[in-house]
Amino acid sequence: MNYRFTPNWFLLAEGELRGNSDFYYPDYYEYKVGIGYRIAPNHKPLIGIGRDGNYKNHSMQREELRIWFQDIYDFKAGRFKFENRFRAEKSWLYQPKENKNSQRIRLRYRLNISTPLNTEKVQPGTISANIHDEVFATTTASPVSFWNRIYGGLGYQVDKNVSISAGYMWQRDFAVKGNIDRHYLYTGLSINVSSPLVAHKSVK
Questions:
Q1: DSSP string spanning the chain?
Q2: Are 67 and 47 in contact (CB under 8 A)?
Q3: Selection from 162, 150, 157, 158 nearest residue 186 by Cα
Q4: Tens-place pLDDT, residues 63-118
Q5: Are 135 and 109 contacting, i.e. CB atoms less than 8 angstroms apart?
Q6: Which burial class, exposed, middle or buried, applies to 199 when counting CB atoms under 10 A from its CB (0-12, 13-18, 19+)?
Q7: Torsion, CA 14, CA 140, CA 169, CA 22, rounded to 10
Q8: What's the pTM?
Q9: Does the first or last residue of the chain, that is N or C, have fewer Cβ atoms within 10 Å of its Cβ?
Q10: Along the 204 residues of the chain, how does pLDDT read in single tens digits?
């Protein structure tokens, strides 16, 4: 959910639940909040904080507190929208079974491409196609570890504030001991609202 409370400032709230293995009950949760500033309609840096947890056999395996800074810049070419997201994260991790604490720094870049299919621009009733590729690098690991996520799916704009999406995501974890492939079926709900005081004002 995004809430724009001034012409330029906005709040982010996000929650996620997923399984880490194929056809497995949800064993990962994540929630986070952030505040961002619209430098321009297509340029929106943000700073946030979040918490997540990994379970195995209904037992907590790892907890994480994360802060991050991201910068989003997008542009359009015809009906296609290209969104570039750069993110730097600092995490504090705790494994309760081993009573072990650790820290992590991770860098991420995502290119997201979307286009409306049945209308000229996104509006209520629009069906859109969406693909993205995101790469991760954990600089505090030795050797440096990498991930790659590729997603493809469809979205539907319910009204001016609400949209839903669904698709497939493939993730590869690259490691010296062997790569791991993960497969996800994804569903999402997005809500974008503005304060009544700024709903009809434009960005400076």
A1: -EEE-SSSEEEEEEEEEE-SSTT----EEEEEEEEEE-SBTTEEEEEEEEEEEEEETTEEEEEEEEEEEEEEEEEEETTEEEEEEEEEEEEEEEETTTTEEEEEEEEEEEEEEEEESSSSS--TT-EEEEEEEEEEEETTSSSPEEEEEEEEEEEEE-SSSEEEEEEEEEEEEE-TT--EEEEEEEEEEEEEEE-TTTTTPPP-
A2: yes
A3: 150
A4: 999 999 999 999 999 999 999 999 999 999 999 999 999 999 999 999 999 999 99
A5: yes
A6: exposed
A7: -100
A8: 0.90
A9: C
A10: 999 999 999 999 999 998 877 666 788 999 999 999 999 999 999 999 999 999 887 789 999 999 999 999 999 999 999 999 999 999 999 999 999 999 999 999 999 999 999 999 999 999 999 999 999 999 887 778 899 999 999 999 999 999 999 999 999 988 777 788 889 999 999 999 999 877 555 444
Token pair 């991790």 is at which residue? 93
Measured CA to CA, the distance from residue 167 to residue 188 in angstroms comes to: 9
Give the CA angle between residues 33, 41, 70 to the nearest 5°. Answer: 40
In sequence order, the β-bridge partners of residue 164 are 156, 189
